[in-house]
UniProtKB/TrEMBL annotation:
It comes from the Bacteria. Residues 357-384 form a coiled coil. Residues 162-271 form the Recombinase domain. Transmembrane segments: none annotated. PROSITE patterns: RECOMBINASE_DNA_BIND (PS51737), RECOMBINASES_3 (PS51736). Signal peptide: none annotated. Keywords: Coiled coil. The keyword Metal-binding does not apply. Residues 3-153 form the Resolvase/invertase-type recombinase catalytic domain. This is Recombinase family protein.
Length: 484
């Protein structure tokens, strides 16, 4: 009597075990009809057939290695249960038959793999190719669905919510909702980074506040994640462009802050520069060859020291620091805004702030109504518990849910109720400074001057043939933001 082992599989954990029961039924019928004894069964639940790296399939191969002399067949319901990669599957079939004298049988499709029978092998190969094509088509549909969900609908499709958010709702109604306590930590990380706090210190402080994400690059991943600015990163799909798209979730930080952080992340200062008040541009002003200019004093015949900016290639640049500084002040004059533009900024900013305050006011009212509803539900649960209408487990479960909702709603109300007029007052106080950028630069200390140049020219300020050059410059909208 011939003997067989069988392999059963379904790919998604959410599927019913009925899939396995059906496969068992069909293989049992084949065994009975062909008078073959079943030796053992191997089952992979929730495993893809793209590769053979599956727990029970590995056990199956180990079994074959030890007991192949007592096995004639390997049964599967259909060939796609065995594998969806035609190349790998055919190689495996050849190995099982040539090395171990075991033939693979697809009971539903009525195919017995036989490498020595051309017709049989052709049919089996065709079925495997069809299974692989089905897998490719399925992958394309999944990618299309993800693109539509993210780019068109603005939905976050990944299983786990990023730190700062939780997921609420079912299926297409599921969306990210801000976790207020975690959101405060995210805001702290962004604010600290823009204030030039070293990353390791940000991480230490964030962990003390409750930041739980692990890994050496955890802070960098938070800073680079567009989710926190209400954006979704979408990969290109067919003829549809990828990029950043607006999400339907509420942002934790504004887009301007996120953009400034990305610009700052692009060009971290690679070399440690000794700060000298006489040559504040050392290390951030570049030669036209691309190398940062160094700076040093040179002693004149009278014994007085004169400062110069120099390129390591001696024939490129050797610039008087006085000349370079005076030229930069002239550039500051050109960057200064006319008073009419400043007035327009003031008006538009006030209108924008009024709009934000009005939206926040409406959101506060909505959150307060939600808070009242949840508090009433919690009171109702407590009442039922007192009256013995619900058991302890039910009470504790609903108490935990409602209490978490209450804490988050109170946090949202507190955040939305913050007095945004403080920011406008700061802007109002400093806005006129935009009309005299020479003064802004002149009164700054050395560190502020360096940061001013790096930010305004995006670390792309060069010197060539006696003049400054730059391919990039902070645009007006961001300059207005920085003015506040």
């Amino acid at each position: 009597m011939k003997r067989a082992i069988r392999y059963l599989r379904f790919s998604q954990l959410g599927q019913s075990n009925g899939s396995i029961e059906r496969q068992e039924l069909y293989t049992d019928q084949w065994l009975k009809f062909n008078n073959v004894e079943l030796v053992d069964t191997f089952i992979d639940r929730g495993k893809s057939a793209r590769t053979f790296d599956r727990p029970d399939f590995i056990k199956l191969r180990e079994f074959i290695t030890k007991h192949h002399r007592t096995v004639d067949y390997l049964l599967v319901d259909q060939l796609d249960r065995f594998s969806r990669d035609a190349g790998e599957a055919i190689s495996m079939v050849k190995e099982l038959q040539k090395k171990y004298s075991i033939q693979v049988v697809s009971v539903t499709e009525g195919i017995i793999f036989d490498y020595d029978t051309p017709g049989s092998f052709f049919r089996a190969g065709l079925q495997l190719l069809l299974a692989e094509e089905d897998n490719i088509n399925r992958s394309i549909k999944v990618k299309g669905g993800i693109y539509t969900a993210k780019a068109k609908e603005g939905r976050y499709v990944f299983k786990n919510a990023p730190f700062g958010y939780r997921k609420e709702g079912e299926r297409k109604e599921r969306r990210l909702v801000i976790e207020e306590n975690e959101a405060k930590i995210i805001s702290f990380i962004y604010d600290s980074y823009l204030k030039n706090t070293p990353l390791y210190l940000i991480k230490e402080q964030a962990q003390k506040l409750g930041f739980t994400t692990k890994g050496n690059m955890a802070i960098e991943r938070v800073l680079k994640n567009p989710i926190y600015a209400g954006l979704l990163k979408v990969d290109a799909y067919k003829n549809y462009e990828g990029g950043l798209f607006n999400g339907i979730h509420e942002p934790i930080i504004d887009k301007t802050t996120w953009t400034l952080v990305q610009q700052k992340l692009k060009r971290p200062e690679k070399t440690r520069t000794v700060i000298d008040d006489e040559i504040p541009l050392r290390g951030i002003l570049n030669c036209h060859c691309g190398h940062p200019l160094s700076g040093a004093p040179s002693r004149g015949k009278s014994g007085k020291y004169f400062y110069y900016y120099k390129c390591k290639h001696s024939k490129h640049n050797n610039i008087s620091a006085v000349k370079a500084h005076n030229q930069l002040l002239e550039i500051c004059d050109l960057m200064s805004l006319p008073i009419t533009r400043v007035r327009k900024i003031r008006t538009e900013t006030k209108n924008s702030l009024d709009s934000v305050l009005e939206n926040n006011r409406k959101n506060v009212i909505e959150k307060k109504n939600q808070l009242q509803e949840v508090e009433e539900k919690l009171f109702s649960v407590e009442e039922k518990w007192i009256k013995n209408e619900i058991n302890k487990d039910t009470y504790q479960r609903w108490y935990s849910i409602y209490n978490d909702n209450i804490l988050n709603l109170k946090g949202a109300i507190e955040r939305l109720s913050n007095d945004k007029s403080v920011a406008f007052n700061i802007l109002e106080k400093n806005l006129n400074m935009l009309t005299d950028m020479r003064h802004v630069y002149s009164v700054a200390d050395t560190l502020q001057k360096r940061e001013f140049v790096k930010m305004v020219f995006d670390s792309n300020l060069y010197y060539e043939n006696g003049i400054y050059r730059t391919p990039t410059m902070l645009d007006l909208d961001q300059a207005e933001f920085l003015g506040g």
